[in-house]
């Protein structure tokens, strides 16, 4: 699937040039906007992978819009365009969470590598978020297994090792994942093990 990009600039000629460069480079241009406010609305609607946005625009500038976009739409990277390469702007852009920075006039030789860098940063962030999500899920599952094991120990007067072995045995015999079995025990009590065992032999 091609990466979706939106182009934001108050100059329609610049927007057209950038659109052509992107489309020739194989990217999908999902929309255009002429100021920061329009950009925020457009990005909320189309959820693109990347926004290429001018800094100096009427109504709302690119840096202010970038701050809001990063808060509202975490999955969209921002590449800022400017006619100036002042250090303060670079600092402001970094603080706004901007992925890359290009000085106008923009050529295809500059634009496409910058787009690739911004998109690769987004992919790394997406991958990191997924890893964190899986890690949190694993920790939660481990906690529920520990709690369920405690209930089984109490109910059946078993040692920690034997309670865990019993849960594993029922999990394997019934093909219910250990985390799901633990959730059932926490919800319905340790009697679930006996019920699961009966289903296995029934």
TrEMBL record:
It comes from the Bacteria. Residues 4-119 form the Response regulatory domain. The keyword Phosphoprotein applies. The keyword Cell inner membrane does not apply. Residues 125-186 form the ANTAR domain. Keywords: Phosphoprotein, Two-component regulatory system. It holds the Pfam family ANTAR. Transmembrane segments: none annotated. The modification 4-aspartylphosphate is found at residue 54. SUPFAM superfamilies: CheY-like. This is Response regulator. It comes from Paenibacillus anseongense.
């Amino acid at each position: 699937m091609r990466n979706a990009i939106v182009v934001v600039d108050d100059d329609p000629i610049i927007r057209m040039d950038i659109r052509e460069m992107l489309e020739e480079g194989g990217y999908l241009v999902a929309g255009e906007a002429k100021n920061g406010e329009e950009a925020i609305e457009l990005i909320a609607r189309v959820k693109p992978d990347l926004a290429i946005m001018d800094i100096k625009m009427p109504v709302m500038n690119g840096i202010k819009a970038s701050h809001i976009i990063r808060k509202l739409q975490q999955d969209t990277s921002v590449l800022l365009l400017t006619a100036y390469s002042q250090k303060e702007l670079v600092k402001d852009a970094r603080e706004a969470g901007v992925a890359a920075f290009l000085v106008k006039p923009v050529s295809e030789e500059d634009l496409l590598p910058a787009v690739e860098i911004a998109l690769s940063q987004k992919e790394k962030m997406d991958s990191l978020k997924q890893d964190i999500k899986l890690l949190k899920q694993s920790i939660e599952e481990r906690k529920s297994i520990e709690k369920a094991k405690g209930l089984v120990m109490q109910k059946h007067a078993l040692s920690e090792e034997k309670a865990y072995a019993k849960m594993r045995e029922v999990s394997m015999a019934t093909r219910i994942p250990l985390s799901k079995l633990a959730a059932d025990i926490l919800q319905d009590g340790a009697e679930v093990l006996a019920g699961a065992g009966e289903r296995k032999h029934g």
